[in-house]
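Subject: Interface between my chains keeps coming out wrong

I've been trying for a while to get a sensible model of this assembly. When I model each chain on its own everything looks fine, but I need the whole thing in one frame so I can look at the contacts. Pasting all components below, labels as-is. Any help appreciated, I'm running out of ideas.
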Amino acid sequence: MDQRRDDPRGALVRPYAVTRGRTEARMDVAIEAVLSASPTAVVESRFAGHDKHRIATVCEGRAQSLAEIAAYTRMPLGVARVLVADMVTDGLLTLHTAAPAEGYEGRMEILERVLSGLRRL
Amino acid sequence: MDFAGYDPAGAGRNRGIVSAKIVIAGGFGVGKTTLVGAISEITPLTTEALMTSAGIGVDDPSKVPGKETTTVAMDFGRITMAQDLILYLFGTPGQTRFWFMWDEIIRGAVGAAVLVDTRRIADAFAALDYFENRNLPYVVALNHFDGSPQYEMDEVREALAIASDVPLVLTDARHRDSVKQVLVTVVEHAMKRLQAEHGRGYPAPVG
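Reply #2:
Try treating it as a single job with all components included. I did that and got this:
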């Protein structure tokens, strides 16, 4: 049951309150970019606030994209992006690069790997 | 920044896991989430972005009085292909008034599939227009519904004015193997496009 979403009065906390009003992330994080939590991140993030702790918990043991983090924590994408970027800067999360957008060989290699991955399904 | 060893933007970056995405576009209710759900290893998730509704369709939202926040939802799925390779499938928001969101969704994507319902073929026009004006490789997939009219592929291509170099495939968005074939077509088309661009010597950026 998702009370926050279903309550016609809206969310009790304004979405960007958890980022202290910041709407710009410290680094660009693509919606499909994958993040993983360092082994100690779940414990350490307890001191970084409730929302960052939830994010670290979501990424524990399984790398998750920014979109998945936002969905599982029920945060708007933009809010999750600000918090995730902070956590990467603070060493709580590792940001993995999304597929390289430049260079023929790099792009072709990804396409070939995705194609053979699909065919194996 | 010129402090030795100080690199906040690069902190924590890692090339360990690569993620790629394919975009599933099309009109409202055409079966995008069904298609994603047919092949995703997770039940399709929904992520929400907050937008200022008064700014929709306006170049500079700051000049619009009485801004209201609205929520745009997009559904997505995940296929973990290897320990270091994940494919995400992102459905575009169906309502045409949310198409400004698409630019972020398609950025860096492998390619896209535009899903078409043959009972409401005109719903696909806006999505096709969008991709015609972008550099992202895309294919058109006719979603076959029970009782939907059967058209010849050539008729559909002509009705939708689909360029001859854009692949057109028939699919059933409920069936995994059929969806897999659509995605294979997207990736193969993207590879052909990339090879052609490389041959000409000037790959154009996506977006």
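Reply #3:
Confirming on my end. Chain B touches chain A through 50 residues (CB under 8 Å).
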